[in-house]
Amino acid sequence: MRFPCLILLLASCAPIAHADIYGYTDEAGTLVLSDSKPDNRYALLLRTEIAQHPQLATPFAGGRINWENQKRFAPLVSQAARTYHLDEALLHAVISTESGYEPRAVSPKGAIGLMQVMPATGKRLGVGNLTDPAQNIEAGAHYLRDLLRQFDNDLQLVLAAYNAGENAVLRHGKRIPPYRETLQYVPRVLALYKKFQAKT
Asked: Which of 31, 141, 159, 174 could form a disulfide with 80 if both were Cys (CB 3.0 to 4.6 A apart)?
């Protein structure tokens, strides 16, 4: 599992005023991160002003984190985390990235709700109403738990699969698919995960 190494890399890119996080995926499928852009392989992944000014837009969802909703839905997140043996901070990081805590969010591809669950995934998990925040969070947590089992707790691959689909990760030899959205999504969620962990 490569996640601990990534955490160390992220820690080395600690939030300092107006610093950004850049990265790329090397030939071995490993994320390489930096707080500068040494060459053209590196793309901007995260503006760390978000960490210092949480009222700013979320890095991926394109909207604002609704901190009132974050508090409102925190008990549901806690419950789902207990049920599926997940870290609450991970669920908060995914929700922040996916929807900014907007329960009515619908993506152009049809993903629904707080955790942006696809209807087919919800149906597979036996969830009938993805617009209901409790059911949506449960579905997303259930899916994350299934992905953790499938990818041997490799959190990078789990998040890549959550974003691009598990079949995309499998097609690319259990590596993060070379999709720009996914290459940006994974480190962004991990960075937010680290920040939510620091708050607990």
From this structure: 141
Tokens of 135: 């059911």
Query: Distance (Å, rounded) from C-alpha 52 to C-alpha 15?
Result: 8
What pTM was estimated for this model as a whole?
A: 0.73
Decide which of 198 and 13 is more confident.
198
- 175 and 81, same structural domain? yes
Residues 191 and 92 sit within 8 Å (Cβ to Cβ): no
Query: What does the block give as tokens for 19?
Result: 């610093």
> Tens digits of per-residue pLDDT, 104-161?
999 999 999 999 999 999 999 999 899 999 999 999 999 999 999 999 999 999 999 9
Which domain CATH number covers 136? 1.10.530.10
Domain residues for 173? 67-199
Instruction: Exactly one of 88, 98, 102, 166 is catalytic; name it.
Output: 98
Does 59 map to a domain? no
Regarding whether 85 and 167 lie in a shared domain, the answer is yes
Instruction: Return the beta strands (E) in the chain as ranges.
Output: 20-25, 31-34, 43-47
Q: What's the length of the chain?
A: 200
The secondary structure of 155-177 as a DSSP string is HHHHHHHHHH-HHHHHHTTSS--
- 81 and 179 inside one domain: yes
Indicate the number of domains in the chain.
2
Residues 44 and 72 in one domain: no
Q: What is the C-alpha to C-alpha distance for residues 169 and 158, in angstroms, rounded to an integer?
A: 9
